[in-house]
Amino acid sequence: MGQLVLPVFFDEGAGNEFAGVMEYITPVRKECYIEIFELIHNILKDEGLKSTYMGKTIKVVYNGNTIRFTLPFSAKFTDLHTELTMRFTQLQHQIYRVEYNNTEGIPLPISGDDDLRICMTESSSRGAKFIRMFVCVE
User: Fold this and answer.
1) CATH fold label, 56-137
2) Suppose 72 and one of 24, 45, 55, 135 were both cysteines; which one would form an S-S bond, judging by CB atoms 3.0 to 4.6 Å apart?
């Protein structure tokens, strides 16, 4: 069986007040629950609730430094760049690309929403606890 467990919180103005837990069970384990999470996330949003717990730990290496943050499965390419420039402020004025190693160890660029989704899905399907990314200044 497969299982997706989400803590649910009241949205804006409630200070992340805990509302309860949702559990989604499938008869067969799914390779990835991102689509289900996004569907539930949108339904919760319409009801004034949210669940932002689902995410992946991202470890980014740049210029000899490593940072770590959590990126929600629903994150967009711009969210990744926002996180990076917030932590590596010197990137705000540079042209750079972000790469990760796929399951075969081949470095692949993350250049849009689709690339980020593939990266997150691939990582989840192999049960990795985090995704290591690399920033390359051009």
Assistant:
1) Ubiquitin-like (UB roll) (3.10.20)
2) 55
Q: What is the pLDDT of residues 28-62, one digit of tens each?
A: 877 677 778 888 888 988 888 888 656 789 999 99
* Predicted model pTM: 0.66
Region at 76 (left for phi over 0; alpha for psi -120 to 50; beta for the rest): beta
Name the one residue in this structure whose structure tokens are 């740049």: 62
Where do the structural domains in the chain lie, given as residue ranges? 2-51, 56-137
